[in-house]
Design brief:
Layout lengths: L1 E7 L3 H10 L7 E2 L1 E3 L2 E5 L7 E5 L2 E2 L13 H4 L7 E3 L2 E4 L9 H11 L5 E9 L4 E8 L5 E6 L2 E6 L10 H8 L7 E4 L6 H8 L3 E6 L2 H13 L7 E5 L12 E7 L8 H4 L3 E14 L3 H8 L3 E11 L4 E10 L1
Parallel strand pairs: 8-9, 13-14, 13-16, 14-15, 16-17
Antiparallel strand pairs: 1-4, 1-5, 2-6, 3-4, 7-8, 9-10, 11-12, 17-19, 18-19
Helix pairs in contact: 4-5
Bound molecules: S-adenosylmethionine (SAM).
S-adenosylmethionine binds next to helix 5 and strand 14.
């Protein structure tokens, strides 16, 4: 089965261009049509509505990396993986860790842009750093990832980054009004901040991990964001409140902990402003969240960004302050 991104027909071309630009479009298969929607076949998971289909092969030869593996291994190896720059990042069940080397070779041989492969051992600790083990290619986890026409360079073993948030960053960039004031409260290497600054926002980016400051500054420069359009504060958000103001838009993207910061950050959004709130929730428990925000906030948008575990999802809620 092949995962497909389902989009309305009116957005089909945009979605195709976007998937193509990040290497997610699986050209071994043809797109499918379904009741006014187009389903684009994927190389790896992206945000949005994903649907599993048999897939219509575009040619007789498939580029699924698993076809390079022995049949017994092929059947128990996951098809999906993430790509960050030239690094493929894959989660493997413990029992097939011993086959990491041939799996890494198959991934490198099947994906022209991939030069190294890392085993994903999970995102850990307060800085949300991904524990990685190199299983193919040369050592080192610094690479440059292209997304929405921007470049993000960082050490993926020291700073959080998720290519799966590309569509979410693109969505927010379309909402920004030039000159509006934005707080990116858990900024990481600043991918949200930079994407929104490109749309004309004036950004304050905050992150507690000292490594993020190095890479955020690098990325503001790499993407030609002038110093007048951003500031980066390396601190826990709760320790720098006196340096913050009122904002038109606040991004709270620390999904395992965001709920703890609602009371702290809601006073910082001005009336008419919006908080983009990312959190992990059991599916069907969105009511809990709405009551946490209180009556002055109105839910203007919500969606599942991606599944997180068999019972939970990473969700985004746009909460407008009235
Ligand atoms: C899930 S990551 C999101 C990073 C970024 N928004 C992105 O999309 O790539 C959460 C970030 O919050 C930072 N963080 C954790 N606790 C924090 C705190 N109390 N104050 C500020 N940043 C914090 C971590 O270092 C991490 O970079």
């Amino acid at each position: 089965m092949i995962k497909h991104l389902k989009v309305p027909e009116s957005e089909a071309q945009n979605a195709k261009d976007f998937l193509d630009s990040i290497g997610a479009l699986n050209t071994d298969f043809l797109p499918s049509k379904e009741n006014g929607s187009i389903l684009w076949p994927l190389n790896f998971d992206v945000e949005g509505e994903l649907v599993e289909l048999e897939g219509i092969p575009a040619t007789k030869v498939s580029r699924d990396y698993r076809r390079k593996l022995p049949k017994k291994l092929r059947d128990i190896t996951p098809r999906a993986f993430d790509i960050f720059g030239e690094i493929a990042i894959i989660k493997l069940p413990e029992e097939i860790h011993k086959f990491s080397e041939p799996i890494a070779m198959a991934l490198i041989q099947s994906n022209p842009n991939v030069t190294k492969v890392a085993l994903d051992l999970g995102v850990k600790g307060p800085y949300r750093i991904r524990e990685l083990k190199l299983i193919g290619g040369e050592s080192g986890f610094v690479t440059t990832h292209k997304e929405n026409g921007l470049k993000f360079k960082l050490d993926i073993s020291k700073v959080y980054f998720s290519p799966r948030l590309a569509m979410e960053r693109q969505r927010l960039s379309r909402l920004v009004v030039p000159e509006e004031r934005i707080l990116d409260a858990f900024a990481g290497a600043a991918p949200f901040s930079i994407t929104l600054a490109k749309s004309g926002g004036k950004v304050t980016a905050v992150d507690a991990n000292p490594e993020t400051e190095i890479w955020a500054e690098e990325n503001f420069n790499l993407n030609f964001i002038p110093k007048s359009d951003y500031e980066f504060i390396c601190s826990k958000i709760e320790d720098t409140l006196e340096n913050l103001n009122a904002y038109d838009r606040i991004i709270m993207n620390n999904p395992t902990k965001s709920l703890d910061y609602v009371n702290l950050l809601t006073p910082l959004v001005r009336r008419g402003g919006v908080i983009h709130f990312y959190c992990i929730l059991p599916r069907d428990q969105t009511d809990v969240l709405l009551s946490t925000f209180g009556p002055e906030f109105e839910l203007t948008f919500m969606r599942e960004v991606h599944p997180y575990s068999p019972t939970t999802s990473m969700m985004v809620f746009d909460m407008k302050k009235n």
